[in-house]
Amino acid sequence: MIYANYFSSVTKDNGQPNLSADQFRRMMNIVYIEGVISGIKRIKEKETGQYFKYDVLIFKHDAVLTELTGNLKPGMLLREMYRLSKN
């Protein structure tokens, strides 16, 4: 949960980020998708068979996460979100 942990630490240190509604929604979607992926991985660890069905779910959610983040590092992503909020 790279992005969620980064956003959490930034919020803890500096307070709520001053983002537009669209960018704040984007940030919350990123945190949500990372949580979903983490939950699926925990379930997969406990499963004794048919791991592949969880791999498909993880792959689909990873694709959504990539679309939301553009594979940017968390700091770069937050800077981009600030920039887009100013426009």
* Count of helix runs: 4
Give the C-alpha Rg.
15 Å
Largest sheet: none
Number of strands: 0
Mean pLDDT comes to 93
Shape: elongated
- Unreliable stretches (pLDDT < 50, length at least 5) are none
Helix content: over 70%
Structural category is mainly alpha
First-last Cα distance: 29 Å
The succession of helices and strands, N to C, reads: HHHH
Strand percent estimate: under 5%
Description:
The chain is mostly helical and 87 residues long. Helices cover 82% and strands 0% of the residues. It is built from four helices and no strands. The longest helix is centred in the middle third of the chain and has 26 residues, at 21-46. The model has no long low-confidence stretch (mean pLDDT 93).
Sequence-ordered SSE layout with sheet pairings:
Layout: H1 2-14, H2 21-46, H3 51-69, H4 74-86
Can you describe this structure in just a few lines?
This protein is 82% helix and 0% strand. It has four helices and no strands.
Descriptive labels:
single chain, 87 residues, mainly alpha, elongated
